[in-house]
Amino acid sequence: MSATDDPPVRAERALRDSPPHALLDVLRAALQADFGATDSELLLADYRLSVLQPVTRLPHTAAPMPIRTSTAGRAFTAQQTLLEPVHGDGVTAYLPVAVRGDRLGVLAVTLPDVPGDGARRALADLATALGHELVVAERDTDLYLQARRRERLSLAAEMQWQLLPGRGCSRDEYSLGGQLEPAYTIGGDNFDWSASADHLTVTVSNGMGSGIRAALLTNLAISALRNARRAGLGLVDQACLADQAVYAQYGGAEHVATLLLRFELSTGRVAVVDAGSPHLLRLRDGEVQLVPFEEQMPLGMFESTDYQEQDFQVEPGDRLVVVSDGVHTARSPSGGEYGATNLDRIIRDSRYLPAPEAARAIITELLDYHEGNDLLDDAVVVCLDWTGAKA
């Protein structure tokens, strides 16, 4: 058998040739023909990362699966293939769908028999291939974005989610994940990252205000930072040009608190510009510490701010958690302050979870503290695990 006759290769080729809206139909046919699958379903994580939403024909009326308590949810959080017996004969394989560390959802495939190791690897490869095709397909269809919505997004939230590079990424030196809340009405908080061969740049931003006004402000700041970064400028110049762009538009009446981090992948040296309120906490050897920086003016507050670069060192095994003031100054509906004690505890309690799942756990803890109510202020959490360069 030639490589092109191999079932996984045929299925991947069929996915590439599929119309964007028909990826699941094409994959179902391939899974039935090559693996004897009796059913298959794509479950995408909703914006809050609380449930897995089935991709069905509009208006997506199939019941979602809770991430906390379902086998599909455990496959998603652990990023491992899990098997679950079905009534009668057969088994359902839950296969994580992710792209370079960005978790999208789970592919559920019902099979007549427990798959062997080879079939399990082939199915996992197909789930990964599906993830890559989903990312490309979202340029041309709204189907998969609509399927992720447990409720309607506000216009400001639509703008903020479209601004994100993703919700996670990983490579040998690091793994990171982030989450925004309130997921369906987020206004001013956001995060961004970009990696090259030698560096990783991460920014966490907190635009003042709420709603569309805050979303427009943050969009301008992040776009200005990206424009400067893509021009090859250093961290200080990125902050200065974004500062000037925001001031030129708002004249100091609006500003964006931003933490800029640039990791040197070969050494673990981190350059920092602290332009406002996001806090960085480090978990090392089981202890959580606030990493102190000289706090400088938020972007856009004054006509010309002279930013200064600081630095610190990360070590293999370190976990960094960046939170906006919607986390570290949060209050419950009854007025109780969330505070550093609760934050430190959940960071320690989630230390064995992968970075993207730890970010979700911290946000979930914050939501529980708010007794099921939407947060009173926008909140962003970004979690980064530092592995370090290979020797």
TrEMBL record:
UniProt keyword Hydrolase, yes or no: yes
Matches recorded under SMART domains: PP2C_SIG
Example of a GO MF term: phosphatase activity
Domain PPM-type phosphatase: start-end pairs: 171-386
One Pfam family in the UniProt entry: SpoIIE
Keywords in alphabetical order: Hydrolase
Gene3D superfamilies from the UniProt entry: PPM-type phosphatase domain
Protein name, entry field: Serine phosphatase RsbU (Regulator of sigma subunit)
Organism: Umezawaea tangerina
